[in-house]
Write a structure and sequence with these properties.
435 residues; 21 helices
Length: 435
């Protein structure tokens, strides 16, 4: 069997293993090692298995991942984010579906301190869903809006997905963070529009809250958001002005979260221990999958599959739109069975050379891919965010009602995706300002 045939067989085998529920890191690693052995022999295979994981894990930029995760977990465990939803509620309660809109605003701000969709969904789910249910909001709307809002954690910086993509694609992470700002805002606005339209057409979804909120209460509520605002301003202000690198930004953010939590007297050994353990677990899971993907990338490169596919696409003369739509279909299909990081790392070895050969901006492709995996978080039958929220609400909201509710937000995502495809400068304008 030729190297190319071996590569194609490897891709098919990985997909089969994933479908039968073999962990994606194991599937990628086993297939890659077997492929090395078949193509190169046992000694080179063992050598690559030894060298590649170390070379990848020793990548200095990766140190930003545990640091940003630690910042998010400290913010959550020390309740630095507790005032976000209350501030959004007192300022936005006048709108149709005001509490649901407040959930979107709160999730957007929390995303800027966490970098994780699942963490954003879990945090806002515990805060926002009970309050919406208490105010007689429709259960499906209450749960689905937080499941959808959580997806912004994958898009709004400091996105762990974007950091991983930047390392694999060798793209400046700071530029990816800048590129994510407009799509993140468009997503937030799109979700808000969906809520307002639905609640205007069907007021029973979100009964009007009969309460008078004074100017003083609004100002006091804003004051409760200062811990997160201070973190966001400190980390991203320094990052985007060039004071420190994305790698250093993670460490600065983690250190600042400890300082702010200590200043608010919510920091103690118990919450610190929980945050450190959660950070270690999540970091280990991310690194294991990433190492497997790195092995798979090298396996495919040796087999020649990516270069052959790139040449085939060029010879076919596939248009920009066909290439992008084909990519979108692949991502959305994989989103039904895989987690976001798994989708990203499984497809990058194949798609990156194709987009690079077509001279399509890898910054733009990174945001397209992130938006697509973000949609996968609420796409049935997997929809990880949906199951996170289901775990929080228990039997009070049927999972079918949550999936039904998120379909409205998926329509909004499709509109945002169309804007990104039709007008690439929406993504590329801010990174381009820095030259």
């Amino acid at each position: 069997m030729s190297f190319f045939a071996t590569g194609i067989s490897g891709i098919i085998l990985v997909i089969v293993l994933v479908l039968i529920r073999v962990p994606i890191a194991v599937a990628l690693g086993l297939v890659s090692f077997g492929g090395f052995w078949y193509m190169l022999g046992s000694i080179p295979a063992w050598g690559l298995l030894t060298a590649i994981p170390y070379d990848f894990a020793a990548h200095w930029t990766l140190s930003s991942i545990p640091m940003f995760l630690l910042m998010g977990y400290i913010c959550y465990q020390t309740e630095l984010t507790k005032g976000i939803f209350r501030a959004a509620r007192v300022w936005l309660s006048w709108m149709p579906g005001g509490l649901a809109v407040a959930s979107i605003g709160g999730a957007a701000l929390f995303s800027a301190a966490s970098g994780s969709s699942l963490a954003t969904a879990a945090a806002m789910g515990r805060i926002a869903v009970p309050e919406m249910l208490q105010r007689k909001y429709d259960p499906g709307l209450s749960a689905s809006v937080v499941a959808a809002a959580g997806t912004m954690g994958s898009l709004i910086p400091p996105s762990i997905i974007l950091i991983i993509y930047g390392i694999f694609a060798e793209v400046a992470i700071s530029k990816l963070f800048l590129a994510a700002i407009v799509p993140g805002l468009l997503t937030m606005v799109g979700y808000t529009v969906v809520i307002v339209i639905r609640c205007t057409l069907n007021p029973s979804l979100a009964p009007t809250i009969d309460e008078t909120i004074t100017t003083r209460e609004r100002i006091e509520a804003l004051g409760e958001t200062w811990p997160v605002l201070a973190l966001v301003a400190g980390v991203f202000g320094g990052l985007f002005t060039g004071v420190f690198t994305p790698t250093e930004a993670g460490a600065v953010g983690a250190a600042m979260s400890f300082v702010v939590a200590a200043a608010r007297k919510t920091l103690n050994w118990k919450v610190t221990k929980v945050a450190l353990i959660d950070t270690a677990k999540t970091t280990a899971a991310i690194f294991i999958i990433a190492v497997g993907a790195n092995l798979f990338t090298r396996f495919l490169a040796i087999s020649g599959v990516p270069s052959a596919m790139s040449s085939a696409v060029i010879e076919m003369g596939a248009s920009y739109l066909i290439l992008v739509l084909g990519t979108a279909i692949i991502f959305l299909l994989l989103g039904m069975i895989l987690d976001p990081l798994g989708i990203m790392l499984l497809t990058l070895p194949i798609l990156l050379p194709i987009f690079e050969a077509q001279h399509i901006s890898l910054i733009w492709f990174g945001l397209l891919a992130t938006k697509l995996v973000e949609m996968g978080l609420i796409t049935p039958p997997v929809g990880l965010n949906v199951f996170v929220i289901k775990g929080i609400v228990g039997n009070s909201v049927p999972i079918s009602a949550i999936f039904k509710g998120v379909l409205w937000f998926l329509l909004s995502d499709v509109v945002v995706l169309a804007i990104m495809i039709a007008f690439p400068q929406v993504v590329l304008y801010l990174p381009g300002l820095g030259g």
